[in-house]
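Tutorial, part two.
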Amino acid sequence: MARAAELSDVVSKPVLHDQARAKVNLTLRVLSRRVDGYHELESVVAFADCADRLTLQPGPQLSLSATGPRVAECGDTADNLVIKAARLLGERVPDLRSGEFALDKQLPIAAGIGGGSADAAAALRLLARANDLALDDPRLIDAARKTGADVPVCLASTPCIMTGIGENLLPLALPTLPVVMVNPRVAVATKDVFAALGLRNGQLRVGVADVVAAPKWPDKDAPLDAWIAVLGAGTNDLEAPAKKLQPVIGEVLKLLGAAPGARLARMSGSGATCFGIFAHAAEADAAARAIATAHPGWWVHAGTLS
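Running the prediction step on this input gives:
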């Protein structure tokens, strides 16, 4: 009878759903490399309307299955960050209810848009719901940090200024921005891009003379030109080393920058995904269609950042 009651309880639990939205680094400055090897960063982060999808059927056993157009790129599900995040949270929350995760993999991997980190963050959000945990529960935050540097920012999935190695998040009132995201279907390993940057342990990349006052961010309702001016004054310090490893990134940036209506073209994260911010959604849609037609093997998405 006890076993039957347990099975009935599992079946009665509804399947939980979440989206793992793509992360976009609108700016990314590498300040230094710490003595422990981690890089100190400063980045303006937004999230796109394209995402992987994750579900959780609460139950006694932790597992993960994966489907979708990018599933072949995921590798062994036993090594997936979804499982890592769940296990780390289980070490911190006694009697954590886990269950069967199902991942619909839509985003390209090793692409500079935090796909794996977003998946792990979605898993933590689902587990929080299944176990009545608040999203600011210190145990959840700690599990996110231990899972990966980009997982804390993906846990919130809201615009922010990210500093440190990804643990410090300052909310930013970013407006909705029309965007085209393009990945030329080449994988770029983050470790290789940072290695190409060439910082030694304990080395500063930004000297005292280079430190300037933080930019004054426009109001959310300010004209697009005001936001482009501030974002355009930034940079992605990983863009140059990434282009050396994969020169096609430069081709993508030229196409985005030359598209009618494009206001800013830049690489996200450690690449190879690049983005273009447009004045109007119709111009973004037209640019995406043109690029996809010219390069049918590339991953192209037109949508919004927010």
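The chain has two domains: 2-171, 177-305. In part three we will examine how such features are distributed along the chain.
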